[in-house]
Write a structure and sequence with these properties.
This protein folds into 2 domains: 108 residues, Roll (Chitinase A, domain 3), CATH 3.10.50; 65 residues, Orthogonal Bundle (Helix Hairpins). Helix content is 33%, strand content 20%. It contains 5 helices and 8 strands, in the order E-E-H-H-E-H-E-E-E-H-E-E-H. The strands form 2 sheets. Strands 1-7-8-4-5-6 form a 6-stranded mixed beta sheet. Strands 2-3 form a two-stranded parallel ribbon. Helix 1 packs antiparallel against helix 2.
Amino acid sequence: MRGTDPEMRTAFTRKPQADKPDTLGKNYITPGGLKRLSEEYHFLVSRERPAVTEVVTWAAANGDRSENADYLYGKRRLRQIDGRLRFLRKRIEAAEVVDPGAPRSEQASARVFFGATVCYADATGAEHVVCIVGADEVDLSRNHISWLSPLGRALLKSAEGDRVELRAPGGTTELTVLEVRYERIEVEPFREPPLAESAAKGVRRSSNPPGRD
């Protein structure tokens, strides 16, 4: 794990680099992350939205809409759903899937890129392990951080033995990269909200994710 002599790399401290223009619009994501976005899209478009629409239609037939709580809530919920669907559609259509477990060259596997699992030591010597994932996959309980986060930016392109500079709101600190590896990253699957309107309506599932037929 520590085949590189840290003493040989003592003088090298790499500072985080700003994004290049051609990377600003990219939505890098793991296969598991894309699956979760697609499943949420399926749920909203085929189950939750039809169920809320049914409530709105029922409430609209019950008199004065301006004082009808069910109607007002339903319309607000539909706007929220439609906004989320637009967001999910854009993220899915812009997705560039990167499989961390896919074979890669020895040179590529030695450095930190999207999908890497990285072990590093902070300024106190404490060791930490993080996985570099997409902005839609961040899960701090699993130590999954975005490649666009301050820590993700600091680690990108580094190799075992490198010292990198982490710039965060709380100040600047130096980290030492101890190990870089690539393996499958487990992403928390999408789970239907227990209080969703569709849970009571039992609307049938169907549909395909946008741009992924």
